[in-house]
C-alpha cells in the first residue's frame, strides 16, 4: 500500500507541468468570466466586487502554483507558510502598484525569493549559497512582469473583452508558473 506524500512536494516534471497548466487555464477562464459578466460602470458596487473576486482568483491560482511546484527538500515550506507568504507578496505588490507601478518590479522578485526560501531565513540561505543565480532569477522575474504588462497592453488594445482577458491571463499565468518553477528549483538546490 503506497502512501502519497502531502503537499508541498516536487512531482515529476511532466506531472508538475500538467498540474501547472490546469491552474493557468482555470485561472484564465475565471478571469475571462469575470470580465464577461462585468457591469458597464467601472466604479459600481458590482464592478468593485468583481475586482475583489479577480484578486481572490489570482491569489488562489498563484498559491496553487506555488504548492504544486514547492520542493519537497524545503521542509519549512508548509502549505500555511506558502499561503501566508503568497498573500503578503500579493498585498505588497498591490499596495506599491498604487503608489508606483515600477516598484512592483522589486516587490515580486523579493516576494518570490521569500516564498522559495519559506521565509527570510531560507531566503538568506539561498542568497548565500547561490548569489548569482538569485540575482539572475530576480532579473528574469522582473522581465516576466514586464512581459506580462506588455501582453496585457497589446491584448487590451487589439483584442477586447473576455477573449482579451483569457489570452492575457494565459500569457501571464504561463510566465508566472515558469518563474515559480525556477524559484522552486533553485530552492531545491539549496
Structure report:
The protein has one domain (13-189). The longest helix has 29 residues, at 161-189. It is mainly α and 190 residues long. α1 runs antiparallel to α7 (161-189) and α5 packs across α6. The protein contains seven helices and no strands.
Topology:
Blueprint: H1 13-36, H2 45-69, H3 79-99, H4 104-116, H5 120-129, H6 131-158, H7 161-189
Characterize the largest beta sheet: strand count, sense, and whether it forms a barrel: none
Q: Regions with pLDDT < 50 over 5+ consecutive residues?
A: 1-10
Distance between the terminal alpha carbons, to the nearest Å? Answer: 32 Å
Structural class from helices and strands?
mainly alpha
Task: Write a brief caption for the model.
This protein is an all-alpha fold and 190 residues long. The chain has helices at 13-36, 45-69, 79-99, 104-116, 120-129, 131-158, 161-189. The longest helix is centred in the C-terminal third of the chain and has 29 residues, at 161-189.
Amino acid at each position: 500500500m503506497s502512501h502519497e506524500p502531502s503537499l508541498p512536494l516536487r512531482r515529476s516534471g511532466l506531472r508538475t507541468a500538467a498540474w501547472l497548466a490546469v491552474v493557468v487555464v482555470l485561472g484564465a477562464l475565471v478571469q475571462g468570466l469575470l470580465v464577461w459578466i462585468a457591469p458597464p460602470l467601472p466604479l459600481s458596487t458590482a464592478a468593485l466586487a468583481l475586482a475583489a473576486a479577480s484578486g481572490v482568483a489570482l491569489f488562489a491560482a498563484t498559491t496553487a502554483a506555488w504548492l504544486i511546484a514547492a520542493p519537497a527538500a524545503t521542509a519549512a515550506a508548509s502549505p500555511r507558510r506558502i499561503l501566508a507568504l503568497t498573500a503578503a507578496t500579493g498585498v505588497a505588490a498591490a499596495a506599491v502598484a498604487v503608489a508606483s507601478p515600477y516598484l512592483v518590479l522589486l516587490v515580486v522578485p523579493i516576494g518570490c525569493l521569500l516564498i522559495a526560501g519559506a521565509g527570510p531565513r531560507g531566503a538568506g540561505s539561498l542568497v548565500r549559497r547561490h548569489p548569482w543565480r538569485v540575482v539572475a532569477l530576480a532579473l528574469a522575474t522582473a522581465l516576466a512582469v514586464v512581459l506580462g504588462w506588455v501582453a496585457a497592453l497589446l491584448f487590451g488594445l487589439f483584442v477586447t473583452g473576455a477573449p482579451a482577458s483569457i489570452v492575457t491571463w494565459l500569457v501571464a499565468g504561463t510566465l508566472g508558473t515558469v518563474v515559480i518553477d525556477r524559484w522552486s528549483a533553485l530552492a531545491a538546490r539549496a
